[in-house]
Amino acid sequence: MNRYVGIVLLLFSITIRGQDCNCDITLSNLSSSSINIVQSNTVEYEPGHTLCIPAGTYAGIEFIGFEGEDQNPLLITNCGGQVVIMESNKSGITFRNSRFIRLSGTGDLNVTYGFKVENATGPGAVGINVADFSSDIEIDNIEIQNTAFAGILGKTDPKCDDEDTWRRNGYVLRNLNIHDNYIHHTGGEGIYLGYTGGYKVSSNLICGEEYIFGHWLENITIHHNQLEHIGWDGIQTNLVRFGGVIFENTITFYGLENKQFQNFAMSVGGGNYTIYNNTIINSINGFGQGIQLISANSGSKLFNNVIINPQFHGIFIHNRHEFDNPNEGYYVLNNTIINPAASGVFYNTTITESENSGLISNSQENVPTLMVNNLIANPGNHYEQGNTWKGNAENYFDFNKRKTQIGMGSNIYSNIKTRQIDTLCLASIEDMDFRPGSEASPLVDAGSDMTIYGAPFDRNQKTRFVGSGMDIGAFEYQNEILNLNCFGYGDDIYNDPTKYSTSTIAFPNPTKKYIRLYNLNYQVANLQIFTLEGNLVHGSNYELGSSIDMGDFAKGIYFIALEFDEYSEVHKIILE
Known about the structure:
The protein is mainly beta.
């Protein structure tokens, strides 16, 4: 008996005129009332062909046994408008035992999302399902909404009665590329890839007396997707043993069901990942947490991510297993984390699972993880008010053990940590635009050179090192005056753009002790020095060219405000 219950459609091969949709084949007679099951042996196709679905409204579609070739996939696309899927019993679009396929909603240039899964409301139904040993599939330009469970699901769960599904028997889900999709109003995750029931040592599935593990994934790319109003995690991936890349996604209003351990913007684990240039925005009173990284491999990276209003921590990291390379941990670089309900970054290195039982409970505080050039503003934790070893520093970079905090000390530097976000001279806090608003921002040129570990661009794909150094946070200042009233010291220094001037030169900057200010047009000025928090630490009439002794000040970032007869200036000074 055929294991796939439904209607099998015997479809004819029809050549479509090139000027229409460039189709080699069209699937006609798809049902709008009952699930459409399309077997590959009923369609005359070749690798590289374009298989079109005419615009219209249909019930769910399952593609079984279709296969293109590497570098020559079978393209399945819409023709003549949007294809709408409305399915009340099963998933919207499913692939079973299929490889080298591109499902793309780009068949009509007048429609952004050529496929729309309008609902998939049956028990456990998803929008698009990559199932039953499928692999090498690209999914793009598709809108998915109103799903009982996930928007896109990709995995073949292990089962005791089907040993082919066991990891040790070799199936790997490879080369899954999910991009430019709009996923919203899902009951479960937005995107859910990989089995989450076990990694290396133990598994939720026991067959006989043996732990059974889910298959590996390789070369998984998730990018340029928009996810919003997501019930559980925005993106959840697991077991990507290499080549996990997640970038340029926007995730807003997620974790709406407040499902315990299932309400992260991203929950990523069990493999190797590079996560960058993503924007995550949680509502002020929402349930959504930030990014969770669990048991990732050495060398995994998070950089240029913007994380706004996360409940709990902005980034939560726990390597439950020993690092695969004891000389390399993780790279947490140039992220912007605003208003985390707990701490900015939480790091736990305690081993809880290992094939070597003697390592259980050991910490890995000596494995170098770099946390550099991050902006963390207004954390919710206030450890300095408690009675633990944790103080103000742990509100920003938090640890489960004191010795981990000590061991990590030299790897955490060039970060800006503040509760005074108004002092940062950002483009527009109200509009959630956390770019530096002018060159006077303390973020500008204050970072360390991290290009060897990441990419030479910022969150907006602009080049780094516009000035003399890398900026702190996800954005590099691009020589734009975006905020003409950055600080508001007294006489509205930046209210009038004609008053903005950088004719004064501060040298040397950075400095270890002395600073001198030079101006060809003026000899004296009223001078005030402020801390990053906006506290006045010095004020005097200043003779241009004379030295200012900052040797008694604590190392850090300061602002020197100069008031001349006709205008005012503010200069950022780095005291090393």
